[in-house]
Design brief:
It is a single chain. The protein is of the alpha+beta class. The chain folds into 5 domains: about 10-240, Immunoglobulin-like (Sandwich), CATH 2.60.40; about 260-365, no CATH class; about 365-590, Immunoglobulin-like (Sandwich), CATH 2.60.40.1760; about 600-670 and about 720-745 and about 760-935, TIM Barrel; about 935-1120, Sandwich (Immunoglobulin-like). It contains 19 helices and 66 strands. The strands form 13 sheets. Strands 1, 3, 8, 9, 10, 11, 14, 15, 16 and 17 form a 10-stranded mixed beta sheet that branches. It has an 8-stranded antiparallel beta sheet with strand order 21-22-23-24-38-35-34-32. β4 and β5 form a beta hairpin.
Length: about 1100
């Protein structure tokens, strides 16, 4: 629990300056009032780009100087013998908002300077808050009157240096009725809006609502008081409530979200229970507690966003609106009304906390409701499990232990959805313990201490398993797993804020996480999957779909506490490596599908609005034009996401668009995809199934017989759901649509009732399973498995029916960071076939961001582009087209390897993207790394998600060779700083590996294969004498078996299963004066690569030895020094 940090509360301007001839480097700035610290909105703890702001004034003008730090924008490009420089464009701007003495409270002027040198200014009078003064995230507009200020009335100077840029504003006092008198104060605020890092920075911490791209507003309640004095300075008041220099009480939010202390949690719980109204005497203290309450819920992933309106059973409320209303009353010295406003907000916090927590108390602190074990009664061995009679002072209940593949299953009461096969076992009772043994695993239950261990690893204690009983049924459960302090704990579904969740509290509750990713701290999830891996030697799967809250060493450092609502208590606990747990999980919930090979090629596309708003003003023409240009530029793609073609949400239904776009795509090598979500009004369902009685329509209902409450979804538990889905999709499938984004479905209300009797609280997290399953069955009827579906939401088992995508992300490096963490978390949660909107979703990414996203996408399971604005590389410049084309062809080069990795995922359930903690659980340094991964077994990938040409990379044990320069070798374990040019993502090949490639005759990565194509295996020779083996798989089921033995100065390779002409590149050796023998034939050594065009042979290169061999079912290649 860190100390709360607060922003600037007021500014004092020093002595009046005599000169107006100021530059960014003038000595006078040494006397200026200076703001040193800026904060992200909403308390976001992400890093902040250093920014400073200084203030001077004369009798005529106010001068404001911004110093904006950045990494250099000039990138050096090296290609063979040429060196060029690229200067990237960055969207970055600073703003000054002022309210002068002739302005009322809702009047102000805003001056803006952009990094590119442009500037603007306006005056607004009579501003109104978006949606009105007290409204909740509605559609209302600001009703203020805006008037532009001509550039002749003020001046802005922008200077760009190597690592920073300056903006100097000179603003005449006369624009505000003249310079204030010395005893007068005025209001001011300053901002920096840096697009590439999604930073809206302010010295006064703002609430997260300003992060919405269309909802930023200049709120006078957040302006700083500025006064005059002898010395320029800024002041900070520590405390959630403070008194301004003018004597006004003000509620401010902390600059960075911090966990609540034990004492603060107690205070929140006491306030939650209190029914006493707020008074003037306790108002300030209750504001403090309310702010900490709100921040704590935010840190747990609670939803203060728009979708709470449709999914949560209470009237929605904006915390930031309530804070402003209280501040307005305090400003007017109306304390009783401020107390009443706060009580309205406290009622909201009480209501949502009672719903959010299993025992209805903040933080689940109502200990009287929980019943825990105090001793063991009897232990009974049955045919397939062991029953332990558990006793407490109040009651007894049963805990059943089933030995299963990989470990044990623990059930009390109702089973979960997935039912694995138990294994044979035996039970032994000793003086101190019960021992349950299966073929490979052993569980020990200590009689006295009640500790449970599996394979000598501490797992939990019966005292740490507790329930809430309502009459004779269970309404909630809790289990505390034993973990070590600072363990690596990961999985949990698709988590954007971090891969390792140790030290956090994680909510597993399906959300439309768009708002959390675009505006908050990225700790909500579209895909909540209770599969968790630990570096303590075990993994577990909570086999329930009810809402869960997992405290991961947050409140208590050596416990992982799982609190779940509902009557299901069913845990699979696997003792072994994370990879083994992945296979056990996949076997239990359904092994992943194996998508067609073309799915692993690049995809293009965009949202419906992106095509509708294009220059042609015609959706179909825009889509065909993009496909045509990709084809003309010789940039390969297999898929095209044509959202909007034949859609009804733009008004008139144009069925012919579907046929036109699909036909055009097929002629140019594209398979065309569409979009759909599960929302289904009664009227639309009736239109699609006109003969179906109203009461039999397969849509969700409400218990209280209301006809509708948003959202109403297709009820996939209903026997007529497939009929409804087929009717909805008939035109698109007839036209040849080959796949779809399967979107939304993540806000099932609690009160929804499904045909099979389940309610929304149980189906909320589970809906994605049936959603994906029904879509899979629909498309299989038309195409077999030659199609692609990719879902935004996911539940356990979704991997058996569809691929997934990472939802809506920021078009910035912050969005890229979220995507990297989300992809790795999803992978560790059993979702191997995942991709993200390269470039981000909402808006237009800066060039540098776009390039780094493109590089990262090439090493994701799915390489796909999507967004609300164009994502085609020609929207930037020729260099961007060149880089995009390189990585699109690189993806084709790597396709044999990618398909082989996909086959492994399909067979074993292990992901394509593998967190280092999963592969190197014993390496403590590796478990700390969140932004590197193994792509398959052989490629170490380290994406670049910052403005930089250098990054730190951790290399695990073994030798790693750069994919871009086979002479670049690094031996781990070691941390290295590595150059990362703007057009290259760091990728390293593991020693002892075989990398199958498809190249053109030049044998260079990233070059077009439209005219020629050949096969190559890159074999990285081990540094030490050893034998390595690997099997490479194809989609058809064919496989290539590779083996390599290094013995002194001899290397022998064996390759079987390849019948085509083949190149083999042996990297990691730099031998000269060698001979090569293939199947007993001595090969000719050539002196140039062209010598291998028409015959077998080999070539000694600086980076290794290149061998070409003729077709053969089995080849033995021996390289030895003479």
């Amino acid at each position: 629990m860190g100390k709360l940090k607060f922003g600037v509360s007021s500014i004092v301007l020093g002595k009046e300056q005599k000169t107006e001839n100021l530059r960014y480097d003038s000595v006078e700035w040494g006397e200026a009032a200076t703001i040193q610290d800026f904060f992200r909105a909403g308390g976001n703890p992400s890093s902040v780009t250093p920014t400073r702001c200084k203030f001077l004034y004369t009798a005529e003008k106010l001068f404001v100087l911004f110093e904006n730090m950045e990494e250099k924008a000039h990138h050096i490009l090296k290609e063979e013998n040429t060196v060029t420089e690229l200067t990237v464009k960055r969207k970055d701007q600073v703003e000054v908002a002022l309210s002068g003495k002739e302005f009322s409270r809702r009047d102000f002027a805003v001056f803006t300077a952009k990094r590119d040198g442009s500037n603007s200014a306006f005056v607004e009078k009579g501003m109104t808050y978006l949606s009105g003064d007290q409204a909740y995230l509605g559609e209302g507009k600001d009703q203020g009157e805006k008037t532009a200020i001509s550039k002749e009335q003020y001046s802005v100077t922008v200077d760009i240096l190597q690592d920073r840029w300056y903006a100097l504003f000179a603003i005449p006092w006369m624009l505000f009725g003249g310079k204030p008198e010395k005893e007068e104060a005025f209001d001011l605020q300053v901002y920096r809006k840096k697009h590439q890092s999604s930073e809206i920075l302010c010295p006064t911490p703002l609430d997260l609502n300003v992060n919405y791209s269309d909802r930023f507003e200049y709120d006078p309640e957040t302006f700083l008081e500025v006064s005059f004095g002898e010395k320029g300075e800024t002041k900070t008041e520590n405390g959630i409530v403070f008194v301004m220099p003018s004597g006004i009480c003000h509620w401010q939010r902390p600059g960075v979200l911090e966990k609540t202390s034990t004492e603060e949690r107690r205070e929140i719980y006491q306030l939650q229970k209190s029914v006493e109204p707020t008074t003037r005497e306790n108002l300030i203290d209750r504001i403090r507690i309310a702010q900490r309450w709100q921040d704590s819920l935010t840190l747990e992933g609670f939803d203060f966003f728009f979708n709470q309106e449709v999914a949560n059973p209470w009237k929605p409320m904006d915390p930031w609106v309530e804070k402003r209303l209280v501040n307005e009353r305090l400003r007017e010295n109306r304390w009783e009304e401020a107390a009443a406003e706060l009580d309205r907000y406290l009622t909201f916090l009480r209501t949502c906390s009672a719903w959010w927590y299993a025992d209805h108390s903040f933080g689940n602190q109502d200990l009287e409701k929980w019943t825990s074990c105090s001793e063991i009664g009897h232990v009974l061995e049955t045919k397939d499990h062991v029953t332990i009679c558990v006793e407490s002072k109040e009651r007894t209940w049963e805990l059943m232990i089933y030995p299963v593949v990989g470990g044990f299953r623990m059930i009390s009461g109702k089973k979960g959805f997935f039912d694995g096969q138990p294994e044979a076992f035996s039970v032994e009772e000793s003086e101190h313990a019960y021992i349950i043994r299966s073929k490979e695993h052993e569980m020990i239950l200590q009689k006295e201490t009640l500790e449970i261990s599996i394979d000598r690893k501490a797992i939990t204690n019966l005292k740490n398993i507790s329930f809430i009983f309502e009459k004779e049924s269970v309404s909630a459960s809790r289990i505390r797993f034993s973990i070590r302090e600072n363990s690596a704990i990961y999985g949990f579904g698709e988590r954007f804020d971090s891969v390792n969740q140790y030290g956090k509290t994680v909510a597993l509750w399906q959300r439309d996480a768009c708002e959390g990713c675009l505006a908050s701290i990225g700790n909500q999830a579209y895909k909540n999957i209770p599969l968790v891996h630990t570096s303590d030697g075990f993994s577990f799967f909570a086999n329930t779909s009810y809402r869960m809250r997992m405290d991961v060493g947050d409140a208590v450092q050596d416990y992982l506490s799982v609190e779940a609502l509902g009557d299901v208590f069913d845990f699979y606990i696997w003792s072994g490596t994370p990879r083994e747990a992945m296979t056990a999980y996949g076997t239990l919930t359904g092994l992943p599908i194996f998508p067609p090979e073309w799915v692993f090629e690049p995809w293009a596309g965009g949202g419906g609005g992106r095509w509708r708003n294009g220059p042609l003003q015609d959706i179909a023409l825009e889509q065909m034009a993009a496909m045509k240009k990709f084809h003309e530029l010789d940039i390969p793609h297999s898929g095209f996401y044509a959202e909007g073609a034949g859609a009804t949400f733009f008004g008139e239904y144009k069925k012919e668009e579907l046929y036109k776009v699909v036909s055009f795509g097929e002629r140019h090598g594209f398979k065309v995809f569409s979009w759909q979500f599960p929302n289904m009004t009664q009227e639309l369902a009736q239109e699609l199934l006109p003969e179906c009685p109203k009461e039999e329509l397969p849509i969700t209902r409400n218990e209280n017989d209301e006809e509708e409450k948003l959202p109403v979804y297709i009820d996939f538990s209903h026997p007529r759901a497939k009929e409804l889905l087929a009717a909805q999709w008939k035109d698109r499938l007839d036209a040849g649509i080959r796949g779809s984004m399967v979107d939304f479905g993540d806000v099932v209300p609690d009160e929804a009732v499904f045909y099979d009797g389940r309610h929304g609280d149980e189906m909320h997290n589970a809906y994605a399973y049936q959603y994906a399953k029904n879509y899979r069955e629909l498309f299989e009827q038309k195409y077999g498995d030659d199609h692609v579906l990719y879902t935004r939401g996911a539940a356990p088992g979704s991997q058996h029916f569809a691929c997934q995508f990472g939802g809506d992300q920021l078009t910035s490096f912050q969005g890229l960071k979220y995507a990297i963490a989300g992809g790795l978390s999803a992978a560790a949660s059993g979702l191997p076939f995942w991709g993200v909107d390269a470039g981000g979703y909402d808006g237009f990414p800066d060039q540098e961001t776009y390039l780094r996203w493109t590089e990262y996408a090439a090493f994701c399971p799915l390489m796909r582009f999507h967004g609300t604005e164009p994502r085609e590389p020609w929207e930037y410049d020729a260099f961007t087209v060149k880089v995009y084309r390189y990585y699109a062809w690189l993806r084709e080069n790597l396709r044999p390897y990618i398909v082989s990795v996909a086959a492994e995922a399909h067979k074993l359930g292990i992901p394509m993207m593998r967190p280092l903690a999963m592969i190197y659980p014993e390496d403590q340094e590796a478990t700390k790394v969140w932004d590197e991964y193994l792509f398959g077994e052989n490629l170490l990938v380290a994406p670049v998600s910052d403005e930089t040409e250098e990054r730190e990379i951790y290399f695990p044990k073994g030798r790693w060779i750069s994919l871009w320069n086979l002479n670049d070798e690094i031996s781990g374990p070691v941390q290295r700083s590595v150059e990362v040019p703007i057009d290259k993502i760091p990728v390293y090949v593991r020693e002892g590996s075989f990398l199958p490639l498809r190249l053109n005759e030049s044998l260079k990565l990233g070059e077009s294969m439209s005219e020629s194509e050949t096969e190559m295996i890159l074999a990285v020779v081990p540094q030490n004498d050893s034998i390595v083996k690997e099997t490479l798989y194809e989609r058809s089921g064919a496989k290539t078996c590779c083996g390599m033995e290094k013995n002194g100065e001899t290397i022998q390779l064996q390759i079987s299963g390849r019948t085509a002409e083949l190149y083999v590149m042996l990297a990691g050796i730099h031998w000269k004066n060698t001979e090569a023998i293939v199947n007993g034939r001595t090969l000719t050594k050539v002196t140039a690569r062209e010598g291998l065009y028409f015959t077998e042979g080999y070539l000694e290169l600086e980076e290794g030895i290149l061998v070409k061999i003729n077709p053969s079912a089995e080849s033995v290649i021996k390289i030895q020094k003479k």
